Amino acid sequence: MSIALAFYEEKYKPELENYLLSEEQLYYTSTPLDALEKCLVEEDRHPVVILKDGMVAGFFVLHGWDGVKDYSENKGAILMRAYSIQHSYQGQGIGRESMEQLIPFIKEQFPAKKEVILAVNVKNTRAQYVYHKAGFDDNGRRVMGPKGELIIFSREL
After folding, report:
1. What is the DSSP string of 76-109?
2. Alpha helices of 2-157 — where are they, by DSSP H?
3. Which Pfam families is this protein grouped with (predicted)?
4. Long-range contacts made by residues 60-67, C-beta under 8 angstroms, separation at least 24?
């Protein structure tokens, strides 16, 4: 299994148009196309695809200070948001592998960044487990989001 992270390019759009998420996933995260629309109007958002053998298996956005400031005072942080693994690719270790590649990817593409943060709904215990396993820590901060309380996780780079 070959997993890679790559910045979004237009050639991936057809796959994102057919990207399926479960009802549970849709409750907690936005679809890649919705997230991509925001990336087009905010230059500080960087869409990333998770590729399995060259096919889009997942998606997330790396968001600079405009996204970070709601969750942290650290201007050296970057926010990971809108993370998902397409429903048909779940249970194959892609989430774990993409998390292992995340830190080297950020260090290479955003060398000035010293921390990655993310926000997880308090009810989304599956995501909390994945992020803990990937070395993220609950930093104790809580923020109210549109669908309830969010736990802020962070990991130093």
Report:
1. TEEEEEEEEE-GGGTTSSHHHHHHHHHHHHHHHH
2. 13-17, 23-28, 32-41, 65-68, 94-109, 125-133
3. Acetyltransf_1
4. 60/84, 61/35, 62/106, 62/109, 62/110, 66/42
**The CATH number of domain 3-156 is 2.70.70.10:** no
Q: Report the alpha-carbon angle 42-45-47, nearest 5.
A: 125
- Whole-prediction pTM: 0.95
User: For residue range 50-84, what is the model confidence (pLDDT) as tens digits?
Assistant: 999 999 999 999 999 999 999 999 999 999 999 99
Q: What share of the chain is helix, strand, coil (3-state, %, to 5)?
A: 35, 35, 30
| Domain segments of the chain as ranges | 3-156
For the segment 86-125, what is each residue's pLDDT rounded down to a tens digit?
999 999 999 999 999 999 999 999 999 999 999 999 999 9
